[in-house]
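User: Hi! I'm a student and our assignment asks us to look at how structure tokens line up with a sequence. Could you show me two examples?

Assistant: Happy to help. In each example below, the sequence comes first and the structure tokens follow. Example one:
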Amino acid sequence: MADNTLITEIGEWLVDQALSKPDIVQMFESACERLYGAGVPLARARLAWPTLHPLFQAETVLWERGKSTGLEQFQHQAERTSDYLQSPMFFMLEHDISVIRRNLDGPNKLIDFPILEELIEKGMTDYLTIRTQFSKTDDASKITGVLVAWASDRPGGFSDDDVAALQKIQRRVAVACRTAIQSRIASNIVETYLGKKAGGQVLDGAIKRGDGQETQAVVWYSDLRDSTALGDTMEAEDYFDLLNDYYECTAGSAMNHGGEVLDFIGDAVLAIFPFQSEDEFPEAAGAATRALRDANAVHEELNAQRRENGRVPIRFGVGLNAGKVMFGNIGVEERLTFSVIGPTVNEVARIETLTKAAGTSALVTKEIAACEPGVWKSTGTHKLVGVTQELELFAPKLTDQKQSKGESGDHDEAAAPLLN
């Protein structure tokens, strides 16, 4: 039987959690352990909630007595799965029910959901699911709140006092979870729209115009070729599909190698690979050029698929530059963006523009090329618009095989692999 004094103490502890920044997995694990210690015969508990994330629709935490507790995330799906449609969760949401109780053994045994059969196989004797809604919305499809499925393996299951204790503690669990969930959603949103580093600075309070810092970085700038013509001639759905494939090549590859994507400027991608000292520069430059290699690999794979499906192939150019940048908030007080500015950024956009005239898909500065001797070839010095000093720029070398294809007219160097 649950100890009411200890249940009250757990409730107060959960209030303290709500006033801090709790880790939802650790908090739920500790709450379940404390409930078990207070005499509630818990063997298993699952916490579930909807989330706001570009990849995931819902998240759950599963606690099982004597086992490690973990987070599980469920991706967005166009159609609901049969498991979900046959679940107690769907039944509760569909019929606006707050509590479901099922005895899993004894004369009152009721097995009307497939999950209950699985729980019986695990030795569970009682099942109690409680739903706590955070707020009502005008859109019925917008679900808020948490749902907790509590299960016991004690013969006879939960007592009436146990059920009362769980119903009492559920509201406090929900309050603490709301704090944790809102924090997770806020982080998801700012990281999705601003990037991890910029999003972290915003969440830490850097939200005034002019907030920022000077840093050194390898700056990546890529731009889609023939975008105006493609936008004019393609159906909107097909053009968006092409853009997303292009972003997967460029922004995705930059992020996979530690780059911070700061902005999508129309169909251009602006990213940085920060470094603190000259000793760290080769590492940042290497990360950026490895991202170029990955962009090439993804580019070739996607274009093969696109050609096979009768779709327009993707062509783009990339420029890399290195130097000091100002990283911070710019705009007007009512509408700010977190980005990088400075001569290094202006130059890299102009470097990428020169890839068309140079007949290559990538150009980098001498300092970056020097980090990988033998990989790059000089294209000579170039005059950049608005820049007094001419820059020597380097393009990736082509293999003999690919060069011979170019000579035979079967190879378009402007769409050549970024690095071989």
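Example two works the same way, sequence first and then tokens:
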Amino acid sequence: MSETIASPSTRRLALEKNVDIDALARKLGRTTIGPEDISGTVPATATAAPAGDTSYWDVDHSQYGPVTEEPLSRFAQVAARNLAAAQSLIPAVTHHDRADVSKIETLRKAWKPDAAARGVKLTALAFHVAALARALRAFPRFNASLTPDGQTLVLKDFVHIGIAVDTPHGLMVPVIRDADKKGLWQIGAEIADLASRAQARKIGPDEMGGASMTITNLGGIGGTAFTPIVNPPEVAILGITRTETITVWDGDTPRPVPMAPLDLSYDHRVINGADAARFMTHYCGLIADPRNMLA
């Protein structure tokens, strides 16, 4: 007779999941077993779950308290599968940096009357798109895609920037085509147009593919850093969080400087750490002195 103390429902759950309840108790060094112990175990007859098998995550959460269910939309299901595949298959690394945005903010204030006259809201994101487009031209290995067999790098002679947009129906990534050939005002107008139409689900499939690289911007929400998931077949993605004021020392004199935290996740099969550091140093230089983007 079993010496393990367990309720009938726990024993029934163990039987359903093919778990040896006495062996589990010995393994845990206990004499009492609850349903939560069973739910987190692999069946005694199995050594490991097959790759991609999530059947062992199937838990009856209602046994712990009230729950409701919310079916994922088809759009969200497709996105979830793509993100899971990207996270599983791409050896990604995230490089963290920050850029001085004081001159960008000065320009935005100076150009406010012009922006009103044009009917364009010139956000900081427009400067980031322009800077990224130029950085991709300077570092062509970042403007590439790896073939599925991992044997060939496809270098692109175009620069299209994806803009991740948070919408009620899920994340959408419309694309600004030929961003390296466009000025700040045009980029600003396209960002506003694409974001607005994404919220209204009026973005066509032809407006969402073929990006060289994607920007995901959480600056309007918050945070100090995060690790964005590379969006294949791109080899890198740039994350931006809320600008913060950092004290910079000029000799013995402290100076407050607005800095934008940046997070570059990249596919380590294509890009190494030194490449990423050089890329971000160049990018931060463009942001710190936007005159380099206006030439």
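Here is something you could point out in your write-up. Residues 91-294 form a domain with the Chloramphenicol Acetyltransferase fold (CATH 3.30.559.10).
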